[in-house]
Amino acid sequence: MTKKIAVVAIGGNSLIVDRQHRTMEDQWKAVRETCRHLAGMIERGWNLIITHGNGPQVGFILRRSEIAEKVEGVHPTPLDMIGADTQGSIGYMITQALGDELRRGSIDRQCAAVVTQVLVDKNDLGFQDPTKGIGGFVDEEEARKFEEEGWVIGYEAGRGWRRKIASPIPLKIIELDAVKTLVDAGFVVVTVGGGGIPVAEDAQGNLVGTRAVIDKDRASSLLARNLKVDLLLICTGVAQVSLNYAQDNERPLDRMTVSEARRYQSEGHFPPGNMGPKIEAIIQFLEANPQGEALITDPWNIERALDGETGTWIVP
What we know:
Number of strands: 17
Strand content: 15-25%
CATH superfamily of the largest domain: Acetylglutamate kinase-like
Strand order of the largest sheet: 3-9-2-1-12-16-17-15
Shape: globular
CATH class of the largest domain: Alpha Beta
Largest sheet: 8 strands, mixed
Helix content: 25-40%
Number of helices: 9
Radius of gyration: 20 Å
């Protein structure tokens, strides 16, 4: 067994490259390409714990559920169940595609997906001001119907009305011991999909699913901290982090320290809806685990980033 363990958080672009390629066939193609690079990382001696996004897939299932509700005898699907559904389906795709890649490379490793619950505080401030958009954009009439059903709705200029839900802070990974047992046994584990299924404790201490979504990178950071891994690798849509992104004076970063990352963020280089949550997740990981390292790149440049040819390394 390898001694090097990495949590690799793959984003939505690992399954859906762009809006023109969203069919299941397109998603299979994208995940197989991503898994080719994950297998390359394993071949280099890493043991992987893979987390993933699920935003578009949640939206698809939510829409199907709404359409199906109009059919007599078909019940709606609660959001926590949709999260579980996507963990199962995406976990299946990753374990199958990655397993195929490992066999082709004569690498004797088995993959396993774990449907994962993540505890949140039912009094988290995020529930008081839901900001995370979910589902498709609708006209005001349909939005008001959602509001009558108990949803919070919000308007985005030029796009329309959309439901908003909370994005609470992840506190505890319920199946952490199971994940650790599998990792210690040499399995490549897929877990904390979509940030985990958000659950809260009721008055009796029982777990109850909540209408929320947990940020995938925050949950991945919590997982990496709990397991004290060597590397937190966050895959996103760019090969490197940049200052002044998409501007004439854009400057890619090969490496930065935690203090530099904090300074750049305070200067507005890493906005909340983009690179900001990834940087925050990495800072939390490195402050709790100063022996670790973190890396940001896109899925297709994983091996090159590990070789120092691209990507952005963040160190304590």
